[in-house]
Amino acid sequence: MARAAAAAVSTRAFVFSVFLGVSQCYFTVPLKISTGSYNVSSDVGVTRRVVLTADGDGLSLASDPSGAVNFLDMVNNLQGDYGRGYYIEMSIGTPGQKVNILVDTGSSNFAVAAAPHPFITHYFDAALSGTYQSSGRTVAVRYTQGNWEGELGTDRVSIPNGPNGSATINIAAILSSEGFFLPGVNWQGILGLAYPMLARPDSSVVPFFNSLVQQLGIPDIFSLQMCGAGISASSTADPPGGSLIMGGIEPTLYQGSVWYTPIVEEWYFQVEVLKLEVGDQNLDLDCREYNMDKAIVDSGTTLLRLPVNVFNAVVEAITRSSLIQDFSSGFWDGSKLACWMKGETPWRFFPKLSIYLRATNTSQSFRITILPKLYIQPITDVDGTLDCFRFGLSSSANGLVIGATVMEGFYVVFDRAQRRLGFALSSCAVSGGEALSEVAGPFSAADVAANCSWAPPKEPFMWVISYALMAVCAVVLIMLLLLLVLPCRRNRSGEITDESSLVRHRIK
User: Fold this and answer.
1) Is the pLDDT of residue 451 over 90?
2) Where are the beta strands (DSSP E) in 51-120?
3) In whole angstroms, what is the distance from residue 247 CA to residue 245 CA?
4) Which residue of the set 64, 73, 81, 104 is catalytic?
5) pTM of the model
6) Which residue has the higher pLDDT, 382 or 291?
7) Most buried in the list 48, 77, 441, 495, measured by CB within 10 Å?
8) What is the pLDDT confidence band of residue 78, given thresholds at 50, 70 and 90?
């Protein structure tokens, strides 16, 4: 997981305080997550098991012909919302122990609490499972907020509302943690759905979904619908949730077409962002700035996180186009909530936000757009007279992250088999009869660079480094030749070690 900015709010931070400016006074307002309801436009009582078909692009549209996958059984299998995270019920061990597991496309370990913790109601007790096997290896993962340590092992895992059957899965049994489990969350572990390269302690730990594909024979594709969009903080309706479809896509969960963008690199789900628009304003930044140092799609991050220069440009553009003057800077940096009189809606004061992604036809792009109701988010009310909202964007020091703020507007297809991500309009991203997101395209990508993905500085800096390294190598080679041909006394008691090995440190 990659998110480091101190002001960023992630799904791991359910309970915290923010400062709210009302008149000349400040109040400490506890963050409360709203509840709400959503509808899926399908008759979920219908059982559909049909032969695996394709949509013309080769994407699985229906069920595995072996009967291992019935997508309608998976509809509504998620609970939660953008503040607490979206989680799925699983059964671990023999006999099965039920736990709720956070769905996270920005990491690769399957980890579950295996010891008591004051903020969780129950945990997986490995001693009670007849099929748990410890590997004897320890593992530790650090996030922007919190960390955990434990041991690696394997056990049988099944998903009540998932593919039929059980699989032997690598499990990180969490024995101690700090700031990972927080008050109010209703999950006891985390399901990393990214690639083996991110697995801890190394890529030999086969991730959960890889094991599912190998052992159950389901297609190497999953799709995700997160239904917390546009929910009022004061709503008393059923809490939002969503769907994790393992093995393909469920057509009743989206509307219109699925638009695809290539996966640039298989570690995180890294994509290539070509440009951003605020309303009708193109930010006109070099496209590499949007991808510095990566652009990823991550369900485990709450906000839309942007590199600092991009974030500042977005705030400036919103401020120029907003009907609100002299808006508090604390609202933009996440330190304050903005409040309106109850019944007033702030969304009309803000523009749409659009992200252009490179299409699978690399000379083209498509645009995903979120309306203000997705990024001006209801948080709490004050004394029944004020409704308070937060800004659903933050700055980032380590890349652009398309988190829940954006994902809640779309049905997102993680087509690992064809190395692409798909976006379609989510059937639950509707509020008051209004769609909260848009997808449009194709557009020409001729006006942007052929490759916008960020890389370490190249010319001329990298040429200088290359020549310098060549010169060093030449000097070392000459010295070695001299040592071979010239008589000299050599001290063999010393030992040369290389402590400068390059390690690419990947954390959330």
Assistant:
1) no
2) 78-81, 85-92, 97-104, 110-113
3) 6
4) 104
5) 0.78
6) 291
7) 77
8) very high
pLDDT band with cut points at 50, 70 and 90 for residue 146: confident
Q: Per-residue pLDDT for 301 more than 80?
A: yes
308 Cβ contact list (under 8 Å, min separation 6) = 395, 396, 397
Q: How far is CA 121 from CA 49, 86, 99, 181, 182, in A?
A: 37, 17, 10, 11, 12
The three state secondary structure string of 207-236 is: CHHHHHHHHHCCCCCEEEEECCCCCCCCCC
**Neighbouring C-beta atoms of residue 473, cutoff 10 Å:** 10
Q: Could you tell me the two tokens for 200?
A: 């801890």
Backbone angles phi, psi at 215, to 5 degrees: -90, -30
Long-range CB contact pairs, 211-214, < 8 A, 24+: 211/167, 211/168, 211/169, 211/170, 212/163, 212/167, 212/169, 212/246
Q: How far is CA 68 from the centre of its chain?
A: 27
Highest averaged pLDDT of the listed ranges 38-52, 344-358, 404-418: 404-418
Work out the pLDDT band at 32, boundaries 50, 70, 90: very low
User: Edge-to-edge strands of the sheet including 364-370?
Assistant: 281-282, 273-278, 353-358, 364-370, 437-444
Active site (annotated) includes residue 220: no
* The residue to which tokens 């963008």 are assigned: 261
| Annotation says 104 is catalytic | yes
Q: Is pLDDT larger for residue 474 or for residue 85?
A: 85
Catalytic residue among 155, 298, 387, 415: 298
- Close Cβ partners of 499 (under 8 Å, ≥ 6 residues apart): none
Residue 459 sits at φ, ψ, to 5 deg, of -75, 145
Mean pLDDT of 489-500: 29
The two three-digit tokens of residue 206, written as one number: 């086969």
